[in-house]
């Protein structure tokens, strides 16, 4: 008898008939559906407005990142340019070149990482791959290349600036 009282105690705290607890009315379902749809529409509208009316700020001038000898071959350094909140990555490739890219995948903005010795940058979220030399998308869902910065070496200092593709035609 004591066991029966203990088992039925929750029924006093939640006095909802069992039949009502397993069914949802059409009206409640429609309210929920409208609420979720409205939230998705609002979020999509925000993203569209931000992308079209508030373009990202252009990088002006050169920005110091680190000393050349602070970054070993195959190493990377994450950094943020002052006045911006966009994360970037500086890569010291195995052939001695330096490359710098935005550290957000062009698919869903997941963080990307350089795999030393592979010549590739990985987005682990959806198995996306980029070429470390050019930033071009190689595999997976990324729709476009990683945004790139030009790397400028001045003595032992490493700087980055806005990327300017060379206009020279290859013959």
Task: Describe, in plain words, how this protein is organized in 3D.
With 171 residues, the chain is of the alpha+beta class. It folds into 2 domains: 2-53, no CATH class; 63-162, Rieske [2Fe-2S] iron-sulphur domain (Rieske Iron-sulfur Protein). Helix content is 26%, strand content 28%. It has 3 helices and 10 strands, in the order αααββββββββββ. The strands form 2 sheets. Strands 1-10-9-4-3-2 form a 6-stranded antiparallel β-sheet, with no helix packed on it. A 4-stranded antiparallel β-sheet has the order 5-6-7-8, with no helix packed on it. Strand 9 (148-154) and strand 10 form a beta hairpin. The model is unreliable at 167-171 (pLDDT under 50).
At a glance:
With 171 residues, the chain is an alpha+beta fold. Helices cover 26% and strands 28% of the residues.
List the helices and strands and how they pair.
Layout: H1 2-13, H2 18-21, H3 26-53, E1 63-67, E2 76-80, E3 87-92, E4 98-102, E5 113-115, E6 120-123, E7 128-131, E8 137-139, E9 148-154, E10 157-162
Placed side by side, the strands forming the largest sheet appear as 1-10-9-4-3-2
Number of helices: 3
Query: Which ranges are low-confidence, i.e. pLDDT below 50, for 5 or more consecutive residues?
Result: 167-171
CATH topology call of the largest domain: Rieske Iron-sulfur Protein
Main β-sheet description: 6 strands, antiparallel
Form type: elongated
Query: Number of domains in the coordinates?
Result: 2
CATH class of the largest domain: Mainly Beta
Radius of gyration: 26 Å
- The CATH H-level superfamily of the largest domain is Rieske [2Fe-2S] iron-sulphur domain
Report the sheet-strand fraction: 25-35%
Mean pLDDT: 86
Q: Helix proportion of residues, in percent?
A: 25-40%
Going by helix content, strand content and strand pairing, the class is alpha+beta
Number of strands: 10
- The CATH architecture of the largest domain can be given as 3-layer Sandwich
Cα end-to-end separation: 94 Å
Topology as H/E string?
HHHEEEEEEEEEE
